[in-house]
Each structure stands twice: as C-alpha cells, then as structure tokens.
Known about the structure:
Layout: H1 11-18, E1 23-27, H2 34-46, E2 50-54, H3 58-74, E3 79-83, H4 92-100, E4 107-112, H5 115-125, E5 130-134, H6 140-143, H7 152-159, H8 164-171, H9 175-191, H10 203-225, H11 231-243, E6 247-248, H12 251-258, H13 262-274, E7 278-281, E8 297-300, H14 303-310, H15 317-334, E9 341-346, E10 352-358, E11 363-368, H16 380-389, E12 402-406, E13 412-415, E14 418-422, H17 423-426
Parallel strand pairs: 1-4, 1-5, 2-3, 3-4, 11-12, 12-14
Antiparallel strand pairs: 6-8, 7-8, 9-10, 10-11, 13-14
Helix pairs in contact: 3-4, 9-14, 10-14, 11-12, 11-14, 12-13
Amino acid sequence: MGMEYIKRAVTDNIITRLKHRKIIAVTGARQTGKTTLCKNIIPSLLNSPFKYFTFDDPDERIRFKNNAVSILERIKEPLVILDEIQKIPELFDPLKYVADKEGQDKKFIITGSSQILLLKSIKETLAGRISLFNLYPLSFFEASGKSAKNILLSKILKQKSVSKEDIENITLVSSDELRRILIKRDESIKWGGYPPLWRFDNDIDKSNWLRDYKNTYMEKDVSDIGGVLNPDALIITQKLLALRTGQILSISEIAKETGVTANTVKRYIYILNATFQCFLLRPYFENTSKRLIKSPKVFFMDTGLNKIIAGEGGISEGSEYETWVFSELMKWKELQESEPELYFYRSAGGLEIDFILKTNDIILPIEVKSSLKVDYSDGRGVESFIEEHKEKGKYKNKPYVGIIVYPGKEIKEIRKGRFAVPDWFLFR
C-alpha cells in the first residue's frame, strides 16, 4: 500500500461512529488525505458499495442546486460520499431531509476543507445528527507506520507516571531501528506531514510542492470563504503569524506591521484558523488572584508549510521544535475517546510551561527542550508548576507527573517524578 493509501489513525473511530450515526463529517486542510480516506480506505474496510460526488466540479454543484433531494433519494448504494461540501451550503437542508426520512438507511460521509461555511451549516441544520472528525497532516506515528493505540503519552496519562517498564522498553530499541526512527523524526520536523510530500525523495520537489500548496491555498480556500477585500494584507498577516509560531499573539503588533485595523487582523486570523492553517492555544488558569497572561499563543499546524510561509531562516530551531510538538499533541488528542484539553501556562512572575494537558484525572505539565541534553535545572519550571497546583481543587493529593520532551535517546528521571522523555518514544 503506497503512502497515499496509508491507513489513518482516525479510521477506526470513523467506522465505529458510522454504526450509530447517519452522517459523518471529515474536515481538514486541503491535501491532508480526506478524499483518499473517505473514497479509497473506508469503503474497502466496510466492504461497502458507495457513490462519490465532488463539489470541486462546478457542473456537479449546479446539478445538486437544482435537484438535490431527488438525486440523493435515487442513490441505491448504502454509502454516499459528498466531497468539499462547503462549496454548496444549499445542500445541507436536502441532506437533513433525506437522512431523516423514514425507512432511509443510507449513510453519508461529507468532507470539507473550510470550517467557516461547513460548521455554520452543521450547527444550524445537522446539530445532533452528525459526528465530526478532523483529519490533520500525517502524525509522526502514522508516518512511522505505528498504531496510535500504544503511544507512550496515553500510557503516562493513564498510569500517572513513567514506569520502570517504559524506561526499560526504550533500551530494547536496536541501534539500526533507532537510526531509522530518528531519520523519520527529523524528516517529520523539517517537512511536516502533508501526505503527498512523503512520495518525494529530494528536498527541491518537497519545497516546490509546499510553495505550490501555499499559492493554491490563497486561490482556492480563501476564495471559497470570500470577504477578503485585501488579499495582499492577508498574505502579510499569514507570514507575520508564521514568523511568530509558538509565541504569544499580539494583534495590535501585527495590525501595525500590516497597516490594517485590529479587527481586520482578527478576521484574517479567523480565516486562517477556519481553514486549518494556524491555531490559537489558550492559556491555562484557575480561579486565582495571580496575574496570568491572558492572550493566546499562535501555532501553525505543519512545520514544513510554516517554514515556507515564514521564509528561510525565519523561525528559530526552538520555535520549530515546539511547533512540531504542538502538532503531534493535537493529532494525538483528536484520537482520544474523551478528548483532553490543551493549554499553555505563563504567570506574570515569569513561570512558563509550554503545554498543559488536562483530563478528568490529571493535569500534565509538558516542557519542550530542543537540546539533546537535559539535566536537573530543566525540570525547574515543571517542578514549580506542580508545587503551585498540587494542593488545589479535585487534583489535591493525586500523584503528579511532569515531562520534558526532548530529541535525545533515553528516558531520564531528572527530578523525583519529573521525566525527560525522547520525542520519538513519546509519540510512537
């Protein structure tokens, strides 16, 4: 099976949900593999005949605008795939009517590469009838051909610790296998996870693909949304945000550099977010009298695309690495049955934690270090955060673990219950 037909980690979740829902939506950036997943992988795993329509085709849009109910009703196949449905928002009412009809047992998979029109229509028309999935670019574990079920991060959250077994398991990885894993990891950080990229053997082809993608995004996704009166200002905003990946967002600073109003910058960020280009990570705070940073951090989901937009040498190695860890956390989070919350933490006093993962059972502080060596001093932030928070609320008296993600080769307990864990072992 070629790379473009790799089984995506979200596949099992979609198949399970199809048993209980008539409509599944798969959203994600252009070229993340939505069509491949929905047209080539899911029907073959279900062993189901299907009918496929793409609304990238203008003739198909006209046909459905004029006659959607009768077209949908006449389909004999048990599975119907409606691709790039955000291009035809008029279809949502007919889809709801046909899906709700007595004796109708067809299942519908809809896909879209823009959340704006898609989610608005879903909320208004299909609320309660639909399950939503995001398909991100390939994660490190998908690119490595590993199952999402055995990821160490999930184990750490479950057992609220890094076990002796985990520390022993890392020593069982052979030198040859470790070399292969580290090459794959470095590729993932350098080029990101868009599936078509993994077909290319040389850097020039990869760079060209990403440049073409950036241009196509402006032509297709942004024009789908409309309402961008000044495309040049949007391109500058996109670049300024890409240069700031992993940093606290200052809208006034970007407005000043772009020469547009703060409200226009907010609108552009909304568009970039709704088309899966950049994400805002909210700060973590409890009801406390402490003064904390309230602004979000901005991240790009894909390190390869981020680099192309920012320009050569535009972002530091540390920011690139933190952005990659963010993207891996987001991809992992999407697969969890009960989705954990993800934040960052920064107090006015200067205590900073790159990521906070919160579930019903645990708050896990995660620091990110791009250096190959970590020591006792690198655990200071995690230690301080835990000391500050362990006596509060429902987490009182619970075991607290903290981790430092780094690109090294061994798990080290750098302070009691505070572990440095190699990225390649945490995410695969």
